[in-house]
Xanthine dehydrogenase small subunit (Gluconobacter aidae), 486 residues
Amino acid sequence: MRQTVRFYLGEDLCTLRDLSPTLTLLDWLRDRGRTGTKEGCNEGDCGACTVLVVRLEDGRLNWRAVNACIQFVSMLDGAQVFTIEDLGTADAPHPVQSAMVEQHGSQCGFCTPGFIMSMAAYRKAEGASTDDQAIDDALAGNLCRCTGYAPIVRAMKQAMAAGPDRFDTQVAAISERLTALQDGESVRLEGSEGTLSIPASADDLAEILLADPEATIVAGATDVGLWVTKGMRRLKHVVPIGRVPELRALTRTADGLRIGAAVTYQDARPAIAELLPDAGEMIRRLGSTQVRNSATVCGNIANGSPIGDGPPMFIAANATLHLRRGTERRSIALEDYFIAYGKQDRQPGEFVEALTIPIPAQNAQFRAYKISKRFDQDISAVLGAFMIETDDQGRITAVRLAYGGMAATPKRASGAEAALLGQVWDENALEAARSAILEDFSPLTDMRASAWYRQTVAANLLTRFFEETTGGGQARLARTGGLAHV
Ligand SMILES: Cc1cc2nc3c(=O)[nH]c(=O)nc-3n(C[C@H](O)[C@H](O)[C@H](O)COP(=O)(O)OP(=O)(O)OC[C@H]3O[C@@H](n4cnc5c(N)ncnc54)[C@H](O)[C@@H]3O)c2cc1C
Ligand code: FES
Ligand code: FES
C-alpha cells in the first residue's frame, strides 16, 4: 500500500503525502504559481482551466483535454499533466501558439490558454481532422467572449498542418516515465481534510466500500467536482476508481457491449455508435470534449439524475446494470435501478461494475432525441429514446419508449408502449401512442421547460420517430410544402 499520490507535472515528478482528497487541480496549479491556467466558471462550462492529461492505457498514451476546475489532484495518480506553461516559449512556440498569433486568435487573452490546451490535445486525438464540424466539437467546451471563433478555427486548421510538436518527439520518454509509475499499488492517505483510497483492483474497491459504505466513489468527477466547487461539500472519504483495470474495460461480448464503470463517454462513444448510431450522435452533444474525456457512462447512471442523457437511451436499448457488493454480484434491468427521485437500487457498500448494452435485433430501429435550450453542452429539458421492432406486415413486435426530464426518474412510457404493441406502425397507432403519453407522465415546470412544453415535446418526438422510421417524413414534407410536422 503506497501512502503517496504520484504524477508528473510537466517534467517534474510530484509525490504528495499530505493532500486533501478533493483539492482541485486548478487550485493546486494556481497555488504553485502556474497561473496560466485560468479560473472562469469553476464548474466545467467555460474551458478556461483546460489542461492536457496523458495516461498510459493498454500500453498506449491517451492524451486528454480536461477541465482542471473539476478534476481532483488525487485522480491524477500515475498520469502526466501539462499546462500552458509546458507548451512552448516565446522563442520556440508550440505550433498551436504560433497559429493563434498568426491568425489573430486572441484579444483579451483570458480564454486563450484554455483554447490552446484544447487545440494541442486535438492535434493528438486519434482520427482528428480539419473538418469544420470536428473542430467545432473539439472546441465546443471553450468559450471566448471577445475574439470570435472564426480566427480560432482558422488557427486550429493551420496548426493541424504544422510539423511535429514537442509532445510528438517525446512519446518514448513520456511512455517510459509513465510505465515507471505503474506499480499496481493501492493508495491510502489519511489527513485532516479527509481520507483518500485509490484502489488498484475491483477486489480492493469492494473491500474499501464494505469497510466504509459512506465513502464517495469518484469516477470522472464531472458531478462530484461540482458538489465541492459549487456545493462547498466536504467529503470525508474519497475513492477514485480510475485506476481499477477491471472497471476500465470496454468489451464486446456475445451479449453485447460491456462498459466498465471507469470507461469515459469519449472512449465508449465509438463502440456505442457501432451498436446504436443515434446514441453515438447524442453523446457528441453530452457536455463538451473536456467533460466527455472525464465523465463516465456509469457515473451518468449511478448519479440517479432524472435528466441524465445516458439512462433513457440505454433503457430504450434494454441495457443491464451490473452491481457488486463485497463478493456478491447481481445484474438488473437498467430501468429498475431508478426507484424514485434521489433513490436508486444500490445497497450500502455496493458499486456499479458495468453496463451491458445488448446487440439490437436485426429489425430493430433506434432513435434518440435531445431537446435542450442550447445545442452544445446543455442539460436536456426532455430526452426521448425509442426502440421498435416490426414484423413483415409492419406489426409492432417489441417497443421501448424511454424519456428523461418527464418524471422524477428516467422512465418508460408504459401506456404508449401498450398502445403500440401488436399494432401496425401507422398513423392510427401513432395517434393512440401520442394520447397515451399524456397519461404516462405529469412532468414538472422548471427553469428548463414548462410542464406543457415537456408534454407537447414528448408526444412530438414520437411523431418524429414515426416519420423517420416509416419514411413518412419525406411524403409529409412534400404535402406541407416543406413545413415539418414536428
Ligand atoms: C459542464 C458539464 C456539462 C454536462 N453536460 C451533461 C449533459 O449534456 N448530459 C448529461 O447527461 N450529463 C451532463 N453532465 C453531467 C455529468 O457529466 C454526467 O452525469 C457524467 O456522466 C457523470 O459521470 P462522472 O464519471 O463524472 O461521475 P462522478 O461525478 O464521478 O460521479 C457521479 C455520481 O455517481 C457515483 N458513482 C460514480 N461511479 C460509480 C460507481 N461505479 N458505482 C457507484 N456509484 C458511482 C458518484 O459517487 C456520484 O454520486 C455535465 C456536467 C458538466 C460539468
Ligand atoms: S473554470 Fe470554467 S471550465 Fe473550469
Ligand atoms: S480573447 Fe477574450 S475571452 Fe477570448
